[in-house]
Amino acid sequence: xxxKIPFFTLSLIVPINLCNTxxxxxxxxxxxFPEQIQESPIVIRGTIGDNSVQWVEGIDHVRRPFxxxxxxxxxxLKGKVSExxxxxxxxxxxxxxxxxxVPGTAKFELKEDVILTINEINGDNSYDLKNMIMSKFxxxxxxxxxxxxxxxxxxxxxxxxxxxxLRELIRLQKTKENKKSPTSPKPDNIQMIPSILLxxxxxxxxxxxxxxPINWLLIIIGCIGLLMIWFFVQKLRK
Length: 238
Hints:
CATH class: Mainly Beta
Oligomer: single chain
C-alpha cells in the first residue's frame, strides 16, 4: 500500500523536524542558486550507491519510512565531511508492503554523478538534503567538454553554471564571509608595552626640579632672612 502526500500539504509537513535523530529540518524553497550555496553548510560531489528503506520514529512517536542512499564522495566543495562514503536520506519509500511518496523529494539512480547541498550530520550519521529536489544537480559535459550543472534548483537562473564557476562562487563567498567577521588577536599574540615606554598624561607627570644656581641663591637668602627675623623677635622679648 502506497500513501501519497498531496503537494499542498508539503509545506506543512517537510519543514518540521520529523525525526528525533535529525539535526536540522529539510525545506522545499525555490531560491537563487548562489543563495542556496551560501546557506548550505556542506556541498559535495559524489556517486550514488546502494539504497535502503528504514522506518524512523519521529518526535511525535509516529514511524515513517526514510530512504537512505550511499554516496561515495569524490569532492568536498564546501564544509567538512569526515567519511569517504556517507548516507543521505529522503522522507518516503516502501518497506514491508507499506510506503509513502512525498512530492518534491529528489530521485536518485545507481552510479549517478551528482552535486548535493546538504545539512549537517544527523544523530543517526545520515545527512538530509538542504532543499529536497532543489539540492540535487546532475553533471554533464557541454560541447566544449566543460562540466555543467543541471537540476531543478537552476530553473530560475538565466545562465548555466559550470563546475568551475561553482568552485569560484564558493571561494568568493568564503572570502567575503572572512572579511565580514575578522578574528580578534589572541591574548598570547598581544605584545605588552612596558608602562615606562608609554607617554604620560599631564596629570601623571611629576614636577621636575631645575638645577639652576639662581634658585639655590634665592633659597639661601630666604633662610637667612627667616633667621634674622627670629633673632630680632627674641631680642624684643628680653
